[in-house]
Write a structure and sequence with these properties.
Layout lengths: L18 E3 L24 E3 L12 E7 L8 E6 L4 E5 L9 E2 L12 E3 L8 E3 L1 E2 L6 E3 L7 E7 L2 E5 L5 E5 L3 E4 L15 H6 L56 E3 L5
Length: 262
């Protein structure tokens, strides 16, 4: 087992006013039927309300704590604004307690500050990037990730995403400067089955050991080859290896270079 040291955590319990209940579904829909398999159990959690929009402009905020968030891979930072309001943001790398951050045009190019992409210099690493202006950050939010500002042309800024994809985003979309913290998360290993159950992951049974009525890979007197006809498939017969799932032709024009060709 390889775990985290949690040495950067400065506060144990979360800010109660910034949390809400998180109900588990067990993979079941509103009819009670399992639609997402191998889910269940898990430790009880409360959801931390994160400020992904960062629209409180020109007001300085002080980082009062770095906290653990069970709902995501990175750490979160508790901000206290000059007017007394408190909010959570994703903790950027090298963002420590006592530092000040700001959003809007007057913000510096320092970790944790949030600006529109048109005000961020070329070559800068950013995270928590919006797809649409004012909608809130949706891209590059997991631990240790960062996108790089590569070019500016007209109303669009070209970013190189962690997957290697080159994508254009409108220049009024906001992004937070810096890399997401807790990059060591990728080195963690669960080490035992009970740790997976605490994360809400139930055992996964391979299709090849099932009967033919339960899975297309099942059957046979011994170990049978997977995908005799068209390659590996899921329990319903859909391709599960190498089949591309993106079907949004409307936004294809914003992708300069696909991650498959990176």
């Amino acid at each position: 087992m390889i775990g985290s040291t949690y040495e950067e955590i400065t506060k144990g319990k979360p800010e109660k006013s910034l949390t809400q209940a998180l109900k588990k579904s067990g993979g079941r829909n509103h009819y009670g039927r399992i639609t997402s398999f191998n889910k269940g159990g898990g430790n009880k959690r409360r959801y931390r309300i994160i400020d992904f929009k960062r629209q409180k402009d020109s007001i300085q905020a002080t980082v009062t704590a770095i906290e653990y968030d069970p709902n995501r891979t990175c750490r979160i930072a508790l901000l206290e604004y000059a007017d007394g309001e408190k909010r959570y943001i994703l903790a950027a790398k090298n963002l420590n307690v006592g530092m000040t951050v700001m959003s809007g045009e007057g913000a510096d190019i320092l970790p944790g500050h949030c600006l529109e992409l048109r005000n961020i210099p070329l070559g800068t690493l950013v995270h928590n990037i919006e797809f649409q202006p004012g909608k809130g950050g949706q891209m590059v939010r997991s631990a240790g990730t960062a996108a790089q500002v590569m070019a500016k042309e007209g109303n669009y800024v070209t970013l190189r995403l962690p997957s290697g994809e080159m994508r254009m985003v409108h220049y009024t979309c906001r992004a937070t400067v810096g890399e997401v913290g807790n990059a060591e998360h990728e080195n963690e290993q669960l080490g035992k089955a009970g740790k997976a159950r605490g994360l809400g992951r139930r055992p996964h049974v391979r299709g090849v050991v099932k009967s033919p009525r339960d899975h297309p890979h099942g059957g046979g007197e011994a170990k049978s080859p997977v995908g005799r006809r068209k390659g590996p498939v899921d329990r319903w017969g859909n391709k599960s290896l190498g089949e591309r799932t993106r079907k949004n032709k409307r936004t294809n024009r914003f992708i300069v270079r696909s991650r498959h060709n990176a």
